[in-house]
Amino acid sequence: MSRTLNSLRPAASAVAAFLLAVASGATACRGGDTADCLTNGGSSGGGGNQGAARCDTPNEGCACGADGAAAECGKVFFESAGYTACAYGTRVCTNGRWGACIGDGMAAKSLAGDALALATAETSGSVAQKGLGAAGSCAAENPCDPGCTNFVDTPSGLDAGPDAPFALVDGGLTPINDPSAAPCPPGGALFCNIATCGAGTSTTFRGRVFDPRGVNPLYNARVYIPTNFDPLPPIPVGPAPDACGGVPNVPALAATATDVNGYFELKNVPSGVNIPLVIQIGKWRRQFTISPLAACVVNDRTNARENVPVPGSVATVSRPLLRLPSKAADGNIPKMALVLGSADPFGCYFTKLGIAPTEVTTNAGAGRMHVFSGNGYGTVNGALAPAADGALWDSDAHLRSYDIVLTACEGAENLATKPVAARTRVRDYLNGGGRFFATHFHYVWFAYGPPDVQSIATWTPNAYSYDPLSDFGVNVGAANGAMFRDWLGNVGALSAAPPNTIRVGQSRIDMSAVSGKATAV
Fold first, then answer.
1. pLDDT of residue 199
2. pLDDT of 127
3. Cis peptide before 498 (omega within 30 of 0)
4. Mean pLDDT throughout 346-360?
5. Distance CA 389, CA 376 (A)
6. Rounded to whole angstroms, how far apart are CA atoms 303 and 327?
7. What is the mean predicted confidence (pLDDT) over 78-107?
8. Angle at 119 between CA 117 and CA 125, to 5 degrees
9. Is a pLDDT exceeding 90 seen at residue 114?
10. What are phi and psi of 389, to 5 degrees?
11. Measured distance CA(5)–CA(41) in Å, rounded
């Protein structure tokens, strides 16, 4: 018998790694992304006009010919200091209309209004000239559109400033990633070091991303190379109403996402110099310095490792190199509030994730995970943690100081510690973009919450219990559901039978259906 998983006490071999996505604080978006949250540019402003309203070149929503036909496309990823970073890809004709531009090819060029009329771009493996056009032209509206090839001469001539991705030589312009061109000045832009390779080849970097402990490979993690070594913009703490949870965009030379086995590949990357590499899932973010890559070949570092000190010992242990941060000194970890309870060893999962013990403190400490007690249960270093009803959901300000709140089962509803006013605060926290992970009796926040929260599902508080091991179906119809299922299989978490199920111990089902106001996951 198979059931759909609605609400349960987590108990499965890979739940610890799965919680990385839950605890990201912003699971929809990735830094350096060319698909999510890029319309308004990155941290330095700009914000590209995508030219979507024009149909003189293939644009999303415009009429097209035969279904299945493909067209090269480009969109502004980031604009700053007189240049734009373009994301290139392909759009497909579906039901008579052009679809979205999908792809991770990247190139830099001058902005419209500057005089540059030549740039290189990877468009399905080819190199093409791109004109910027006059005001009102499609190229002026979207300088990354590969269908815009009109050139405009200007009285000021061509822009060949120190930040421009080309050099003036006898006879014309040469991209400065060409070895024959003038070299970049010391400390110049990284794109100066993207080698011009022969047909069918590129400087390629391969790697693999893991959880903080280095045990579980992670799927759909964003991996990108920023345009420079400048410090990454800080990730704000607390809820944000935008789809990216307040995570700032970062201009990138190359970007991709990991597959179901945690592997990734970046093409057309700089060679011969150290390069910054960022891995990110929501608000989990870590930057590495990668030693110089060889030009025009595949640089396979999927097995790169490092020796990591064992806490409280002089010993070290070998771990995969590309891991999400285990402590704040390594990178950004979302700020989490963990409410412990007497009926659930929930806190143990975060040790399995690899979060350093130094990051687990009370709200008076500097750790990224603050522990609170629920129903009088929950300690830190042998001392009882502050009560959640007096230090967490007692005020909007306390809730908003966390990216996510995680609650362990208390063995009962304990309504006295979750008064109506607190339930309203939690609703407001969620509406403001907060994340709240509730187990079992914490259905209180929803089933007994404000009317608009109650309406997101049909609640059946504590109606069904399955104490033996039970199999629950993975919702492959949800966003990335099939990818999640495949990842569960790769880490050994799927049941042997029935297919596409995960085995859970001591499950508690507290809702029977999800309304159209919410999304089942």
1. 85
2. 30
3. yes
4. 88
5. 11
6. 22
7. 71
8. 140
9. no
10. -75, -10
11. 38
Q: Could you give phi then psi for residue 21, rounded to 5 degrees?
A: -70, -40
Residue 396 corresponds to which tokens in the numbers above? Answer: 């909007």
Count of residues for the chain?
521
CB 376 within 8 A of CB 444: no
Secondary structure letter of residue 413 according to DSSP: -
Q: What is the overall mean pLDDT for the chain?
A: 77
In one-letter notation, the amino acid at residue 502 is I
Least confident of 10-19, 139-148, 346-355, 495-504: 10-19
* pTM > 0.85: yes or no: no
Query: Residue 103: its pLDDT value, please?
Result: 66
79: how many CB neighbours lie within 10 A of its CB? 21
The two structure tokens encoding residue 285: 């973010």
The partner residues of 309 in beta bridges, in order of sequence, read 316
> What is the amino acid identity at position 334?
P
pLDDT tens digits, 375-425? 888 888 888 899 999 999 999 999 999 999 999 999 999 999 999 999 999
Dump the DSSP string for 13-51.
TTHHHHHHHHTTS-TT--TT-SSSS-TT-BTTB------
| 3-class SS shares of the chain: helix, strand, coil, % to 5 | 15, 30, 55
Q: Any residues with CB less than 8 A from the CB of 443 and at least 6 apart, and which?
A: 7, 459, 461, 462, 510, 511
* Cβ count within 10 A of residue 58: 24
